[in-house]
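Thread: Prolyl-tRNA synthetase associated domain-containing protein, structure

OP (GT): Posting the sequence first so everyone is looking at the same thing. Length is 166 residues per the record. Can we get the C-alpha cells written out before standup tomorrow? I want them in the notebook alongside the other entries.
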Amino acid sequence: MDPERRLFARFEEMGIASETVEHDATATVAESAHLAETMPGSRSKSLLLEDKDGTLTLVTAVGRTKVDLKKVGEAVGARGRLSFAKPEVMEEVLGVAPGHLTPFALINDRSLRIETFVIDEALFEADPIWAHPLRNTASTGVTGEDLKRFAELHAKAFIVIGLAQG
C-alpha cells in the first residue's frame, strides 16, 4: 500500500475525519499563502531539527510563525543548538523530501527516531489544522484533537508549547 493510502487508512481506523484539497505544489509557506482564502483554519509548517548528538525533533507550527529554535531546544532538552536536519535524514526517517514535510509523516517513523514532536499551541486556535498528506500537491485538514490523537499513537513523545519568537 502506498504511504498516502496507508495514512488515510490509519485515519479511518482511528475515526479521524479529514478533508483533502488538491492544489499546485507548495514547498514553502509563501508559496501556499494564496490557499488561505479557500482553506480557513490553521495552515501549518513543519521543521525537522537535530541537536549536536543527532537527536531529532519534529516541529509543527502555524505557517506564519517564526519559530524560536532556542525555546524549542530548551523544551526538548537539546544538547547544544538545534539545526535543520539534512534532507537525507528526513527522507530516511520520515519518508518525505524537503517541501513535503508534515506531522503526518510520523506514520513513517516506525523506529521512533524522532524523540519529540513539538506542536505550536497557536495551531489549536482554529480548525481544521492543514498539513500535507505526505506530498506537497494537497493539504489535509484535521481537528486539533485529532492531531493530538494521531501524535499519541505515532510519536515517541509530544508536547504542545507556544513557538513564536518574542
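GT: Both are above now. Quick notes for whoever picks this up: The chain has one domain: 3-26+41-161. Residues 3-14 form the longest helix (12 residues).
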